[in-house]
Design brief:
Layout: E1 5-10, E2 13-18, H1 27-30, H2 32-43, E3 48-52, E4 61-67, E5 70-76, E6 82-86, E7 101-103, E8 108-110, E9 117-119, E10 124-126, E11 145-151, E12 154-158, H3 166-169, H4 171-174, E13 186-195, H5 199-206, H6 212-215, H7 217-222, E14 228-232, E15 237-243, E16 272-278, E17 282-286, E18 291-300, E19 303-312, H8 314-317, H9 320-350, H10 366-379
Bound molecules: FE2/S2 (inorganic) cluster (FES) and fe (ii) ion.
Length: 385
């Protein structure tokens, strides 16, 4: 069936959107079965944001990352290289490490059960008494590797045996924010949120500002929702930017910049706030004066851990007066985040109703329709349009 399309203008740009854009059926937010499929076909196949490089600064430092029932150890080896291993012993399958972060001070990862020992690159170093076992080759029992991708000081992991190449998947991002010199930036602040909603609701919420006039009165003054431009419509990286109304403005309680422009940011970017989602768990927002990002960890079909980070240049972080001023950005985003979380959690509740089958997107939400399609493609599901 041919879908009719309507053109409309956003910021002078012609957009063509299908006349009928239906939302996903409610089961995609409420079903344990579909969630299990998403874990297998999306979270265990796609590139996931794990952390910033600075969070694993020295050889031996590690964090563990839950991905559904899986757990990954991300560790810096003795040569400073980032290594990712499945957190499971090759002897009889014991989880090796239960702590969220720490340091393998001895330079090895030891199983708590029968003391098999792995080096930080994952090679099996010692396995008590296994020499006596005929045909046992230590080389064959290294930790299962996961893949690591590095960009802009961010560390990504991929649990698939043969993932799509990192550079291909992230292509739209790689040179986009060079003026921010992302590797130079450091975490200035972090806010942790636990939310009772499906992970997709957060991605959707982030990619439309149809809700802004009602939900975010202050944000709507600083960046009116009709000032939104999308310039990445397909694939893992989707997003665009919004124009600030104030000259040298930013997303703060008084609308003024919270810090000097980041590194080499200049020209149009001094007036823009960017919003890119990197499917499925990073929301990245370079502002003129700081970078904000969210790392989403899905814990259940109706529960996520969403950590919001603020990045600044160390020259700003090291000046208490500047950091005092920066509180205005933190306060603004904490308030705005909570406004969003409230509606996302209410949507999760509403979607429990069996009377609701599928809703209908507005022309402002075409990007959500694209996001839904990305998810359906990954799951191999076909829905009537
Ligand atoms: S299960 Fe790890 S050493 Fe036995
Ligand atoms: Fe919002």
């Amino acid at each position: 069936m041919k879908t009719n399309q309507t053109s409309f203008k956003k910021r002078g740009v012609d957009y063509k959107v299908p006349d009928i854009m239906l939302t996903l059926p409610r089961e995609y937010y409420q079903s344990e079965g579909i969630y299990r499929e998403e874990l297998e076909k999306i979270f265990c196949k796609r590139w996931l944001l794990a952390c910033r490089e600075e969070e694993i600064p020295k050889p031996g430092d590690f964090i563990t990352i839950p991905v559904g029932d899986e757990s990954i150890i991300l560790v810096r080896d003795k040569n400073g290289k980032m290594q990712a291993h499945f957190n499971v012993c090759r002897h009889r399958g014991t989880r090796l490490c239960e702590t969220e972060k720490g340091r393998f001070a001895s330079g090895s990862i030891q199983c708590p059960y029968h003391a098999w020992q792995y080096d930080l690159t994952g090679r099996l170093r010692a396995a008590p008494l296994m020499k006596e076992v005929p045909g046992f080759e230590k080389e064959e029992y290294g930790l299962f590797p996961a893949h690591v991708g590095l960009w802009g000081g961010f560390v990504f992991i991929n649990l698939a045996e043969k993932p799509a190449p990192f550079e291909e998947e992230m292509g739209a991002l790689l040179t986009r924010f060079e003026d921010w010199q992302l590797p130079e930036l450091r975490i200035a602040h972090k806010i942790e949120y636990t939310l009772n909603c499906n992970w997709k609701l957060i991605l959707q919420n982030y990619q439309e500002c149809y809700h802004c006039p009602g939900v975010h009165p202050l944000l709507s003054q600083l960046t009116p929702f009709r000032n939104a431009v999308h310039d990445c419509f397909e694939g893992a990286v989707i997003g665009g930017y919004m124009e600030l109304t104030e000259k040298r403005g930013s997303m703060t309680m008084d609308g003024q910049a919270a810090a000097p422009p980041v590194c080499n940011v200049s020209g149009d970017n001094l007036q823009r706030v960017h919003y890119y989602s990197v499917y499925p768990n990073l929301l990245l927002s370079p502002h003129p004066d700081f970078v904000l990002y969210h790392r989403i960890r899905s814990l259940a079909y109706d529960k996520i851990q969403n950590d919001c980070y603020f990045l600044l240049h160390p020259d700003v972080i090291n000046q208490p007066k500047m950091m005092q001023r920066f509180q205005s950005a933190i306060e603004f985003w904490d308030m705005t985040n909570r406004q969003d979380w409230q509606v996302c959690e209410q949507m999760q509740q509403g979607l429990k109703s069996h009377r609701f089958k599928r809703g209908r997107y507005s022309g402002q939400e075409d990007i959500l329709y694209a996001l839904d399609k990305e998810g359906l493609r990954a799951l191999g599901h076909k829905l009537p349009e």
